[in-house]
Specification:
This protein is α+β, with helices and mostly antiparallel strands and 528 residues long. Helices cover 30% and strands 28% of the residues. It is built from 14 helices and 26 strands. The strands form eight sheets. A seven-stranded mixed β-sheet has the order 3-12-13-19-16-15-14. It has a five-stranded mixed β-sheet with strand order 23-22-24-25-26, sandwiched between helices. α1 runs antiparallel to α2 and α3 packs across α11. Bound molecules: adenosine-5'-triphosphate. Adenosine-5'-triphosphate binds next to β13, β16, β19 and α11.
Length: 528
């Protein structure tokens, strides 16, 4: 498929891929608000965009920075047992041989020979259509929250089209990796709806390759990292040798990762360039890994609540034992209810000593820990909470989006779009408005207020347009507080009101009068 898409196409594609029988146009509204207000837009849009790559505009960049800063603060700075790391994006290619990525970081890929579209085989679901005990054909759909319902609808449509009498059996969804060879030509392509054009699945390695140095031969091949985690394993010894850490301890990192995803989709949910926040928590080989696994699942869940992700949108998925990698002891995903379905947000994996042992084997460097108390040397085990900054940003955007009714300038109720970000994570904390822009005294006082607050938080100064419209713009940006400088502030309505301002709360739209001097401490308390 052509990787170059213009924004309108990308938008429609995103909206279409999200639409299910029961969804509203919520996701389309969120995508368009992100574009309109400067949260997120397609990368290199002036050239038509590049599929799977996104840019964060002024508000999006602040939102992401707040997510990163908050995580780093809670995960690293406020703890004695976790240290930070910033490893390089391009590492020695042997790292990726040891980790298993060169050999096995693949997704099963399927081509549609007619439409030239590519799919991930595990995202195509199909079922035989059984009528009166015999198979009348096959139906297929792309992964969504309503796979069985959509397949059933298609099965009924096929029955009507072929005018076959008899009882239609309930569909039996399977993904395309489970298709038997004789079924492959019979399953319709999700692109054309016709059977016969899908190829059998084949392994596609998702690592981006590049060359290091002047020569472009096999020996110069290197990879853009597909995860940040291997930096922590490869540097385990170096961090240990600094002498600051004792088991149990963790190494945390935030950074870009790259995966040549076969089907980037659902807006930023599955991108080809994205940012991860990962932490490797090293424990003793004799420690109770389940206790630590539970601890980190709870920690991640609590952290999400602390940045305003509602508990009601979260759930937990424990990977069944038979689907785990051979070295894995257990993996739990914290799932989030996106408008396009319940999907993985944060994975918490108990990986045993696999990664350190592999690096010891491939590098010849022992990856062991010496316990002074017991005089025992061993390879530590690891618990890994891994999450994408972009996925958290998307979950926060989806959680924050809200429509309510608010009076316009003439007092008539109108629909108000408001992003109800937690003040801690909101891109702009406070907006400052002079009531009128053509009154120099009001403007001067407003700028004084802006400068008073600026050292403490992100402030947006806005003097353009009617005050109601300025409030609405900030509601869409998710700014929790608005401060208006009016004639009372100047002392024109009595000396007792001089140097007081109105403070407006985004969610309740209530306004109260506050002394200018009290503003900074009051707001700081609310945003921390
Ligand atoms: P999936 O099965 O969805 O491809 P994964 O289980 O391979 O994802 P991990 O390798 O565990 O994902 O990555 C850890 C986290 O990084 C994920 O929980 C997710 O938040 C984020 N992440 C992974 N791939 C992407 C991507 N293509 N775009 C955005 N975020 C991603």
């Amino acid at each position: 498929m052509d990787p170059f898409l213009d924004f309108t196409q990308a938008l429609h594609k995103t909206a279409r891929s999200m639409a299910g029988p029961n969804t509203s146009d919520l996701m389309e509204k969120i995508v368009s608000l992100c574009k309109r207000r400067g949260f997120i837009f397609p990368s290199s849009e002036i050239y038509g965009g590049l599929n799977g790559f996104w840019d964060y505009g002024p508000l999006g960049a602040e939102l992401k920075k707040n997510i990163r800063d908050r995580w780093w603060e809670d995960m690293v700075r406020r703890r004695d047992d976790i240290v930070g790391l910033e490893s390089s994006i391009i590492m020695h290619p042997k790292v990726w041989e040891a980790s298993g990525h060169v050999g096995g970081f693949t997704d099963p890929m399927v081509d549609c020979k007619t439409s030239k579209q590519r799919f991930r085989a595990d995202q195509i679901f199909f079922s035989p259509v059984v009528i009166g005990g015999s198979t009348a054909g096959y139906v297929s759909v792309l992964e969504s929250e309503w796979i069985a319902e959509e397949l059933q609808e298609k099965a009924e449509a096929l029955k009507r089209k072929k005018a076959i009498q008899g009882k239609l059996d309930p569909v039996q969804p399977r993904d395309f990796t489970e298709a038997r060879p004789e079924e492959i030509p019979l399953v319709p392509s999700p692109a054309t709806g016709e059977p016969g054009s899908l190829t059998p699945p084949r392994a596609f390695n998702m690592m981006f390759e590049t060359w290091v140095g002047a020569l472009r031969d096999e020996s110069a091949i290197a990879y853009l990292r597909p995860e940040t985690a291997q930096g922590m394993f490869a540097d385990f010894k170096a961090v240990l040798d600094t002498g600051r850490v004792k088991i149990p301890f963790g190494i945390a990192q935030i950074g870009k990762s790259f995966r040549n995803e076969i089907t980037p989709r659902n807006f930023t949910f599955r991108s080809r360039e994205f940012e991860q926040m990962e932490m490797e928590y090293f424990i003793s080989d004799q420690d109770d890994w389940q206790k630590w696994h539970r601890y980190w699942i709870d920690w991640c869940r609590d952290w999400l609540l602390s940045v305003g992700v509602p508990e009601s949108s979260l759930s937990q998925y424990d990977h069944p034992k038979e689907k785990l990698a051979f070295y894995s002891k257990g993996t739990a995903d914290i799932m989030f209810r996106f408008p396009f379905g319940v999907q993985e947000l944060w994975g918490i994996a108990a990986r045993g000593d696999y990664d350190l042992s592999q690096h010891a084997k491939f590098s010849g460097t022992p990856m062991t820990y010496f316990d002074e108390a017991t005089k025992r040397r061993y390879v530590p085990h690891v618990i890994e909470p891994a999450v994408g900054v972009d996925r958290i940003a998307l979950a926060i955007l989806c959680s924050a989006y809200c429509e309510d009714q608010a009076p316009d300038e003439k007092g008539n109720l109108e629909t108000r779009v408001v992003m109800k970000f937690h003040p801690r994570i909101a891109p702009i904390k406070v907006a400052v408005f002079p009531l009128l822009k053509n009154k120099p005294d009001l403007v001067a006082k407003a700028k004084e207020t802006r400068d008073l607050l600026r050292p403490h938080m992100t402030v947006f100064y806005d003097e353009a347009g009617a005050i109601g419209r300025r409030y609405r713009r900030q509601d869409e940006a998710g700014t929790p507080f608005g401060v208006t400088i009016d004639f009372e502030t100047l002392g024109e309505k009595g000396p007792e009101l001089k140097d007081t301002v109105t403070l407006r709360d985004r969610d309740s739209m209530k306004q109260e009068r506050i002394k200018m001097g009290d503003l900074a401490p009051l707001l700081l308390e609310k945003i921390r």
